[in-house]
Amino acid sequence: MTEYGRGYGSEPWHPEDPLYGDQGSSRGQEQQPQWDGQQAHRYPQQQADPYAQQHYNGGWDGAQGGQPPYDPYDPYGQQPPADPYSGTNPDYYAAPDAYPPQHQHPHPQAMQGQQGMQQQQQYQQPQHPQHPEPHYDEGTGAGDDWRADPGPREPEPEHAFFADHGDDDGRDDLDPREEGRGGRERRGKKNKKNKRRSGRACLVVTLLFAGAVGTVGYFSYDFIMSHFGPAPDYEGEGTGEVQVDIPENSTILQMGLALKRAGVVKSADAFSEAAIDSKKDKVLQPGTYSLRKHMSAASAVELMVDPKSRNGLTIREGLRSGDVYKLIDTKLHLKKGTTKGVAKTEAKSLGLPSWAKNASKLKDPLEGFLYPSTYSVGEKAKPAAVLKQMVARANQVYEQHDLEGNAQKLHLESPMQLLTVASLTQAEGKYKHDFDRVARVVYNRLKPDNTETYGLLDFDSTVNYARSQSTLDTGSVDDLRNFNDPYNTYKFKGLPPGPIGNPGEEAIRSAIDPAKGNWYYFVSINPEKTLFAETNEEHERNRRIYLKEQEKAKQ
Q: For 278-289, what is each residue's pLDDT tens digit?
């Protein structure tokens, strides 16, 4: 049977519980225990008991008859027997601390059994001087083990986090009944220990919090200064001299990084801020610059926009390769013709694209591949390195415009022919608005059904390229037709063998996407105006306008 009623707040065993009395039916005939050799006195049976065949907690046998013993902790059991002297039923629950009071008038016949019971309880129950166990009245059997104290109840296991590792005897310090047994003293000790532990915990938390705040503050200050504070910068105009190469397509920040690596400025951010504040960030261009070390960012910007400090080499649109060689020789202080010789002997190692494999058979193998731009050329640079840099730039642009794919769309034999059309457009046109129509004239004259020029381009620019000259007076028609050169488009039909210059991006775009029209002729009457015609008669009228303009120019 479950032990109810032995701890605080537990409920006694109720007779209506389906398990009530299941464990007592087999003990009905056991010999009743003796106290001092005498049978304990029982209450006389007062009424028929429906539970007469059950054994009540080892202390009452229904086979022997009699009233079941009164349990002071069982609110559902029998009422306590009336006092034979007073005739009243004492209320044991009215006593302080829920303990029944001592009987003042015990029954005379139960004295011996009462004494024997007390002697046995001395060996069975622990002594509690402050709160003695309740005294039960006579009439119960001496062997009633339901009143025997089962001893201290084994505490339930406690989680290690809540366990108190201090001195604790298992008693509840909050119970008022423990006051006389050192409860206050133990509470004082425990409170002191708890305070010490709490103090140490608070100290640890405070130190951790202070460390975290300090760390966050340091990094916050560093972040704010690096992102919002003034950028590190030198002062003054600097000293010494150093050359700095700024690569092509460099941003302002990348320029600042290059200057910082060379020891010119203290930080790239300072250089960027100085360039933007001075509104000269758009003026700065790639190239090689002669600067000084430890310059302020503002001084570096001012010196870089000065043409005297720039060591870059600029190639303009339409410039022939021969003219580019001369510029390189002059820049590197080389003997005249040095770069041209390097271009002819080392052309295959300079990085030409695969579709330019026949370039070595041309008048100039690098014509059309020295892309117009500004390049970094230091004083100690080599001609081959400069040429290779220009060819690499040309390959990059030609890949962006897909010369191979567009040549197929335009029914040209190779990308080299498309590049040649672009060079003719660049040489014959003057402005972007002319490039689209000049390119259309080229494609119209290349048509097999061309009855205007019968497949001849008739361009003075090709003759001038063949003669290494640049003039408007190329001679009479007879002279031109007697000039036996593959670049003479007055004599040989179709496109010349290769480009006649280095076209820029606008001319390349016009060669890829020319204007729509039936023009076969054009003539530039002045640098600002070009006239286009579809027939030869219309073209002759435009030529007369051109001649008048030439006469005015001579006067």
A: 888 888 887 778
